[in-house]
């Protein structure tokens, strides 16, 4: 029986364009507790805390995933979720570019390829929202 935390997490995940069953089903036969903990803790507790709205939480999550590296599946989901909650493609791109100094070229390049794939799936290419600022002025 799902707990209130799990139901709250499922609702928050749905608000982000996700489906708790996509998290739970692949793990049900090997690690049902992991699926439950992700639903309860990550989405039921952390993602419902006050202090940051969903767009900011998604940008923070994207930054963390880029920095970790080897997170393509999760990065794909969270970029799509960011777009669902109002983050612009340009904000995603600028967040990833900003990480060049902190996460390094390979991780930033790979993350940008994931972002590009998500944008392409949503027919958002080429990006038309605000061109990048020229720092030379």
From TrEMBL:
InterPro entries listed in its UniProt record: 4CMD/NDH-1_regulator, AhpD-like, CMD-like
A matching Pfam family: CMD
Domain Carboxymuconolactone decarboxylase-like: 32-116
Gene Ontology MF terms in the entry: peroxiredoxin activity
Gene3D superfamilies recorded: AhpD-like
Name used for this protein in its record: 4-carboxymuconolactone decarboxylase
């Amino acid at each position: 029986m799902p707990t209130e935390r799990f139901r709250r997490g499922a609702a928050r995940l749905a608000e982000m364009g996700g489906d708790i069953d996509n998290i739970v089903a692949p793990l049900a036969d090997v690690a049902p507790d992991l699926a439950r903990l992700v639903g309860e803790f990550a989405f039921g507790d952390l993602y419902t805390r006050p202090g940051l709205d969903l767009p900011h939480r998604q940008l923070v999550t994207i930054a963390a995933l880029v920095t970790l590296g080897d997170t393509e599946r999760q990065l794909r989901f969270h970029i799509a979720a960011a777009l669902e909650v109002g983050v612009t493609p340009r904000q995603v791109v600028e967040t990833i570019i900003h990480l060049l100094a902190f996460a390094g070229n390979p991780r930033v390049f790979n993350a940008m390829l994931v972002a590009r794939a998500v944008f392409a799936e949503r027919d958002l290419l080429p990006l038309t929202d605000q061109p990048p600022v020229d720092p030379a002025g």
